[in-house]
Design goal:
Blueprint (H helix, E strand, L loop, with lengths): L1 H7 L1 H36 L6 E5 L12 H6 L6 H7 L7 E16 L2 E11 L3 H4 L4 E4 L4 H5 L4 E4 L1 H8 L9 E4 L2 E9 L14 E5 H7 L4 E9 L5 H15 L11 E4 H44 L1 H9 L4 H39 L11 H27 L3 H6 L2
Parallel strand pairs: 3-8, 5-7
Antiparallel strand pairs: 1-9, 1-10, 2-3, 2-6, 2-9, 4-7, 5-8, 6-7
Helix pairs in contact: 1-12, 2-10, 2-12, 2-13, 10-12, 10-13, 12-13
């Protein structure tokens, strides 16, 4: 009977569905965009390495006002020699690889072509054990080339294109930086644009000892420590902290002059941030959904008014209050669910179209409509339908049969 009533009043039903559709579409689109952004950022962060700790002078997140910025500035930079010292500490039994890194910017040239302000990353050879490096041709440099400061390099995709108009067949060719001739031994796979720009597309990677030899303007020096898979970064955190205090000869009362950064610190901060954004998005979306709910409630009031005499006849024939209540609640919930489903389908369609256009470019960002968001959309639609139909359905169920039959 509820479905028959909805079908008999197509225009009224469609208008009610549109109101709920707009509300659900607003909420689920916000949730999908925020969740997709969070997932893409966390995916980009994973490229920094699994089970990895970065020993640096700077703290990535937190710190607070109790530790002023000038203290970070006055901390010593990480040193290449500290890699050997770490490997001599007991914590080395828990470590899979240790790498040193620093970077600078300069102009690179190949023949008549040049690129300005290219980031030159210097790594020690064990970096290839820490991060899964995707190299389309050639290889990463080895221990001998690292320790002997050999003039070799692995080019990022965009750098290769900029200097040679191709990223193929470059192994064995040369380019120059800081006036030094450098041999190309590999080219990184094109990683595309990501949210936080963590890739090697626009970089040149060289042995860190070679970078130290040709440049006196290194920055961002740090040590990267990867824990063994069966250990994990959390398990070695305090052990590594104690080892670094010992290496730097810090007295018990002295504060650390270094920071141990973990990817989980960033992930936790991002989760907290996006949780707050989701809350604001929910509040904004609920206003849109509330408007749709008022529309459904209004339609139900009109429906009850129009069918008062029919309700009286039904009750006179034995229909109980619960039956009338359930009848109108069913109409209200079905209307809202239809609006919710249409709103979710709209979000899915727009997400698919956006992903199609993003896939045709170089961006790695993707919109992801999760089952959790779909479930939330259905839940919100059902709740609004139930609330919007409660009062009209209750009034209909409490009508006196004789008075209802006589109404016009």
């Amino acid at each position: 009977m509820a479905f028959h009533s909805l079908i008999s009043n197509k225009l009224r039903s469609i208008l009610s569905v549109i109101g709920i559709t707009i509300g659900i579409f607003s909420i689920i689109t916000v949730f999908t965009a925020v969740d997709s952004l969070e997932m893409n950022i966390k995916s980009s962060l994973q490229s920094l390495g699994k089970n990895v700790i970065y020993i640096d002078k700077w703290q990535w997140v937190g710190g607070g006002n109790d530790y002023p910025w000038w203290k970070y500035v006055n901390r010593p930079d990480a040193r290449y020699s500290e890699i050997k010292s770490i490997k001599e500490q007991p914590v080395s039994q828990l470590i899979d690889a240790v790498a040193f890194t620093s970077s600078t910017n300069t102009t690179v040239r190949a023949g008549d072509k040049f690129l300005e302000n290219v980031k030159i990353d210097g790594y020690s050879f064990e970096f290839s054990k820490i991060e899964n490096l995707e190299i389309t041709e050639g290889r990463f440099f080895n221990e001998f080339e690292d320790k002997n400061a050999r003039n070799v390099a692995v080019l990022g995709h965009n750098v290769a294109i900029g200097l040679f108009d191709t990223d193929k067949g470059l192994v064995g060719k040369y380019f120059s930086l800081f006036g030094k001739k450098v041999e190309i031994i590999g080219v990184f796979k094109n990683q595309g644009d990501n949210i936080i720009n963590i890739d090697f597309d626009d970089n040149v990677v060289v042995p860190v000892r070679f970078l130290q030899y040709i440049s006196s303007e290194e920055n961002s020096a740090n040590i990267i420590v990867k824990a063994k898979d069966n250990v994990g970064s959390d398990a070695i955190y305090e052990e590594l902290r104690g080892s670094m205090r010992s290496i730097r000869r810090l007295k018990p009362q002295q504060e650390d002059n270094f920071t141990l950064n973990k990817i989980s610190f960033l992930s936790d901060t991002i989760t907290e941030l996006f949780g707050t954004i989701n809350t604001f998005g929910l509040i904004i979306g609920l206003f849109s959904l509330l408007v749709g709910g008022f529309g459904v409630a209004n339609i139900m009031f009109v429906s009850v008014k129009e069918r008062t005499n029919i309700i009286g006849i039904q009750k006179a024939l034995g229909a109980k209050n619960e039956f009338i209540l359930f009848h109108f609640l069913t109409e209200s919930v079905v209307l809202s669910l239809l609006g919710g489903i249409v709103g979710i389908l709209l979000t899915w369609g727009i997400s698919g179209m956006l992903n199609f256009f993003l896939a045709s470019g170089t961006s790695t960002f993707r919109m992801v409509l999760t089952m959790g968001n779909v479930f939330q959309g259905i839940l919100f639609a059902s709740a609004i339908g139930l609330l919007a139909g409660m009062i009209p359905a209750y009034r209909a169920s409490r009508l006196v049969p004789v008075e209802a039959i006589r109404s016009k």
